[in-house]
Amino acid sequence: MKKIVSAALAAAALASFVGCKQEKKSLNIYVWNEEFQSRFNTYYASKLPEDVQVNWVITPNQEGAYQNKLDEALLRQNDVEPNEKVDLFLVEADYALKYVNSDFTLDVINDIGITKDDIKNQYKYTQDIMTDKNGNLKGLTWQACPGGFIYRRSIAKDVLGTDDPTAVGEALSDWEKFNAVAEKAKELGYFMLSGYDDAFRVFSDNMKSPWVVGDKIVIDPQIEAWIAQTKDFTAKGYNNKAALWSAESTQGMGAKGKVFGYFGPAWFIDFIMAPGSLDDQKAPAQVGNGSYGDWAFCKGPQSFSWGGTWICGAKGSDDVELIRDILKTLTCDDEVMFQIAKNAGDFTNNVPAMEKVAASDYQNPFLGGQNHVKLFLDSAQSIDRSNISMYDLGMSEKIQSAMKDYFDEKITLEEAWNNFYTSVLELYPKLKR
């Protein structure tokens, strides 16, 4: 009898637990890291209705794992219960069009209900990237990603006699000047760049042609310029032969690093360089810990943008009203955009907010107190991503990989190109040389 009563009580308890769990609506958000989660928790979570539970599905980007996980979930979207459906998912510029031109994304204006007035202060290029072939806007972002050159102040003083951003910016204002400073830096025992790939995004973002026109692979002169410069820098010892994202590249950011500078946007400063500069990862990020504070920012030889993260509403979601409020708060609210910029270091996707930061007393401690936002403003307004294609991620990865052996003099340039085309055609078999 006790067993029967116990079983009944257990069943009742389980039913109660399940009932409580089912009272909560699930908001399922697919991401590849914790960047958006941090912005969401800080600037939106307090607005969440009490009956909503946020589920973060985090899958790293490496080897396409995130896209594979997301694609599997989107393909099941019509076959699962409402609480298991994808509600929001994030995409990067390199593969955004794959989802923009699909039926998996909600139209921001016609489906979600964001108005054109809501998004009037955003940088135009951030909307152009997420507009499908029929003119429908399929995602929004809280950040814009104009880039520049982040340089080591102490090395700049040694090489140029000054660390002032205006003076250093003038000394590096075109590629001829940049190369001359690289030569001088080498003579003093420094590397102008960390490795092979550091300048790649500067050149690739300035391509006039997309990687593919029709079904034919197109090599823009900017890619050829990157190859020529990197070959020259490698041969002359102007770079440290480090691969991007490698431990060797990060070591160049530390106190003992000999790298003059790195190309990157605001997110690269905040998420890569600031932590990479610290000798003690457990200690506060402040002057005295590694090279933190011994950096500054200038425009560099060529304007460019790099990356970006867009928020997409998933078709089939039953939380469209909540999605609308999240997008309005985290991508359209002038004050929220201002606070994210000041507190988190993002260059946010809001013209008046960024102009306000540029005119304020904002100081970035990693950059020695510099208000670098002023230098971003013109670049952000002039960004043109008409060269974007759905092949950007694969092409960028394959060209950098194929050219490495050429830079190291292991193969000829012709062999490197053959390796590139072989790997690309394996990835995209419908394309032609």
Question: Layout of helices and strands, plus pairs?
Answer:
Layout: H1 2-23, E1 25-31, H2 35-43, E2 52-58, H3 65-75, E3 88-92, H4 96-100, H5 108-112, H6 124-128, E4 147-152, H7 153-160, H8 165-171, H9 175-187, E5 193-195, H10 200-204, E6 212-213, E7 216-217, H11 221-236, E8 239-242, H12 247-251, E9 261-265, H13 266-276, E10 295-298, E11 309-313, H14 320-332, H15 334-344, H16 351-358, H17 373-382, H18 392-407, H19 413-427
Parallel strand pairs: 1-2, 1-3, 5-8
Antiparallel strand pairs: 3-11, 4-9, 4-10, 6-7
Helix pairs in contact: 15-16, 18-19
Considering the chains and any ligands shown, give keywords for the structure.
433 residues, alpha/beta, four-stranded mixed β-sheet, three-stranded antiparallel β-sheet, 12% strand
Order of helices and strands: HEHEHEHHHEHHHEHEEHEHEHEEHHHHHH
State the total count of DSSP E strands.
Answer: 11
Note the main sheet: 4 strands, mixed
Instruction: Please give the alpha-carbon distance between the first and last residues.
Output: 79 Å
What sort of overall outline do the alpha carbons produce when their principal axes are compared? globular
Rg, rounded, reads 24 Å
> Segments where pLDDT lies below 50 for 5+ residues?
1-21
Number of helices: 19
Protein structure class: alpha/beta
Helical fraction? 40-55%
Give the averaged pLDDT, no decimals. 93
Strand order of the largest sheet: 2-1-3-11
Strand content: 5-15%
Describe this structure in words.
There is one protein chain. With 433 residues, the chain is of the alpha/beta class. The protein has 19 helices and 11 strands. It has helices at 2-23, 35-43, 65-75, 96-100, 108-112, 124-128, 153-160, 165-171, 175-187, 200-204, 221-236, 247-251, 266-276, 320-332, 334-344, 351-358, 373-382, 392-407, 413-427; strands at residues 25-31, 52-58, 88-92, 147-152, 193-195, 212-213, 216-217, 239-242, 261-265, 295-298, 309-313. A 4-stranded mixed sheet has the order 2-1-3-11. Strands 9-4-10 form a 3-stranded antiparallel sheet. It has a two-stranded parallel sheet with strand order 5-8. A hairpin with a 2-residue loop joins strand 6 and strand 7 (216-217). Helix 15 packs across helix 16 and helix 18 packs antiparallel against helix 19. The chain is globular, with a radius of gyration of 24 Å. The N and C termini lie far apart (79 Å). Mean pLDDT is 93; it is low at 1-21.
